[in-house]
Design a protein that fits this description.
Elements: H1 2-32, E1 35-36, E2 42-43, H2 47-58, H3 72-101, H4 103-119, E3 125-129, H5 133-144, E4 148-153, H6 156-161, E5 173-175, H7 181-186, E6 194-199, H8 204-217, E7 222-226, H9 230-238, E8 243-245, H10 247-260, H11 262-272, E9 291-294, H12 298-309, E10 314-318, H13 321-324, E11 330-333, H14 339-344, E12 352-355, H15 360-373, E13 378-382, H16 389-394, E14 399-401, H17 403-416, H18 419-427, H19 432-446, E15 452-457, H20 464-471, H21 478-481, E16 494-501, E17 504-507, E18 520-525, H22 527-538, H23 540-548, H24 556-563
Parallel strand pairs: 3-4, 3-6, 4-5, 6-7, 7-8, 9-10, 9-12, 10-11, 12-13, 13-14
Antiparallel strand pairs: 1-2, 15-18, 16-17, 16-18
Helix pairs in contact: 1-2, 1-3, 1-4, 5-17, 10-11, 10-12, 10-17, 11-19, 22-23
């Protein structure tokens, strides 16, 4: 608001001064020029009468000459004052119209409306900085789950598109630079309902500035940042950034897991997938034979080092080695789109191919040329633009690396179900056979759709009746939690993956594990299972039925009827 007032005063200073001078001179002239009354006596207009007359004269209302008919000298002065005031008003109104149409003024008004909207928010929300492919996918996922978000983006076209998108929740958006502290404050950085800040711009320096500003002004907020530079990652980590997401390192880690434990990789994809989407098929990257990596940029380097760590021979193809550098191992100069280059890299004998340049057309050309020379090669393709998803899918690559989707999915899980990453961290220490068994159990629950994942705290606000029950020291197990409240002998299609109990973590607890007040559960299942579990933990009668198997009558009349002795 201060900016708006300052802008108005600065732009309107000259027109207002012009009006003031015109009014002052007109009033002064009327008070000095003598007039004559009906009796022919000389009179002088008072300052009040002069101000009153000039006020309606300047607006051309025209109530007449007061308090007496004017002399010729007075009428000449009034005529001059009339034209001067009209010109001054035209000048002022023109300046006002120009001010209203000024982009700076419109931006200031938009910022003021946005800040007032954010100040009125009472539900927890996440501040998302950057609304590109990653930001839009993340906001859509958050609103689909009933969570709130506030967006800042430097591109006005992106913030304008939010109003046209089919989002389940209203998302306030500000066209501004997230690196500016004032914009972050207007977006609710210090708002009591702000639950966290997500920096997703395509500029590492801006993301770094956002993280620093957040940790200095609101140190308790969770900060999640996108970064694709190891130097920036180290800088972010040095002052306590909670999560740093590098899409290239993340995918390289996923590829390593797929090498070592294919079932665990499949489990991870299923549990972190988007609800309602189809379950992905197992992936078995070959380890017998060498791999070819086309493109030695940030992605290519991450894949190259991971493959070397797995003991796999790698041949790198790069068209600009002076820019990207050269690997220590085998190297071929070229783009990889030509058969000659791929043949030089021994594509006929290659086990795997990574088309990892930053150009989707080149990546598609690399894949199609390579398959003509070696139809059996395992293909990993990098997708750079979301709009190319259909043509990327058409090549039927074994694995697709889309940086925006990787970042959005990881952050979505971190915000919605952070216990899932605890579960996956613990699962890494298990045998692959353990993961294969769990994959079979999950598949039996949900068939061909990605399962629903939910964190459930046994606290009064989420499980009121069950919390009171457990607080009294009564016995209630995981098996009881997974009973169908309509048919007690049936089991709901859900699995308790993890129980967090203070500092303890219970991985895949067995059916007889007792629950305690304050436990936090990570549950996987279908939508119906969650609906019925919510009924169980919220109704005393259902809880008693689950525990005892007896359906006790409810209400005074039913209790009286069932209490009558049978004859």
């Amino acid at each position: 608001m201060e900016n708006i007032v300052f802008l108005i005063l600065r732009r309107m200073r000259q027109p207002l001064l012009t009006l003031l001078v015109v009014y002052a001179v007109s009033i002064l002239g009327l008070t000095l020029i003598p007039g004559r009354d009906a009796d022919g006596d000389t009179w002088h207009m008072s300052i009040f009468h002069a101000f009153y007359f000039v006020s309606y004269m300047a607006t051309t209302i025209g109530f007449g000459e007061i308090p007496h008919a004017f002399t010729e000298a007075q009428r000449v002065w009034v005529s001059l004052s009339l034209y001067a005031s009209v010109i001054a008003w035209i000048y002022a109104l023109g300046t006002i119209l120009a001010l209203v149409q000024d982009r700076t003024f419109q931006q200031a008004l938009a910022e003021n409306r946005f800040a007032r909207h954010v100040r009125k928010m009472r539900e927890p929300f996440h501040l998302v900085c950057g609304y590109g492919e990653t930001g839009s996918a993340l906001v859509k996922s958050l609103t689909r789950r009933g969570q709130h978000a506030v967006v800042i983006d430097i591109d006005e076209a992106r913030t304008s598109m939010i109003q046209l998108q089919d989002l389940r929740e209203s998302v306030p958006a500000l066209h501004g630079d997230a690196a500016v502290t004032r914009h972050l404050q207007e977006a609710g950085l210090q708002h009591p309902a702000c639950a966290g800040v997500v920096a997703l711009t395509d500029d590492n320096e801006v993301n770094l500035k956002i993280a620093i500003t957040t940790k200095l002004l609101s140190p308790k907020l969770k900060v999640i940042c996108r970064a694709d530079s190891h130097d920036i990652e180290a800088n972010m980590a040095s002052f306590g950034t909670d999560h740093i997401v590098d899409p290239f390192d993340t995918f390289a880690t996923h590829l390593a897991v797929a090498f070592q434990a294919p079932c665990l990789y499949l489990l991870q994809r299923w549990l972190t997938g988007r609800e309602g989407s189809s379950l992905s098929d197992p992936v078995y990257p070959p380890q017998n034979g060498h791999w070819i990596v086309c493109g030695y940029g940030r992605f290519g380097k991450a894949i190259y080092h991971r493959l070397r760590d797995e003991g796999i021979d790698v041949v790198v193809i790069e068209a600009n080695p002076d820019v990207t550098g050269r690997p220590d191992g085998e190297f071929v100069a070229g783009r990889g789109t030509e058969a000659v280059t791929l043949e030089e890299a021994k594509i006929e004998d290659a086990a795997g191919l990574v088309a990892g340049t930053d150009d989707d057309a080149n990546n598609l050309s690399i894949v199609m040329t390579a398959r003509e020379l070696n139809p059996e090669v395992f293909v990993v393709v990098r997708q750079n633009q979301h709009d190319n998803r259909d043509i990327i899918a058409a090549v039927e690559a074994d694995m697709v690396m889309h940086p925006s989707a990787i970042i959005a999915d990881k952050i979505r899980v971190l915000l919605a179900t952070p216990m899932l990453y605890e579960f996956m961290s613990l699962a890494l220490y298990q045998e692959d056979s353990w993961a294969c068994e769990l994959v079979s159990r999950v598949s039996a629950l949900v068939h061909r759709e990605v399962p629903h994942i939910r964190e459930w705290s046994l606290l009064p606000e989420e499980a009121g009746v069950l919390h009171e029950y457990l607080a009294r020291g009564l016995h209630f197990t995981v098996e009881d939690m997974l009973r169908d409240p309509w048919r007690r002998e049936h089991r709901l299609k859900a699995i308790v993956l993890l129980i967090r109990r203070r500092n303890d973590r219970l991985l895949l607890p067995d059916a007889q594990t007792p629950l305690r007040a304050g436990d936090r559960l990570l549950v996987c299942g279908n939508r119906v299972a969650f609906t019925r579990m919510q009924w169980t933990v919220s109704h005393q009668h259902t809880l008693d039925y689950i525990r005892t198997g007896e359906d006790q009558p409810q209400g005074w009349i039913w209790r009286k009827l069932f209490a009558r002795p049978r004859r």
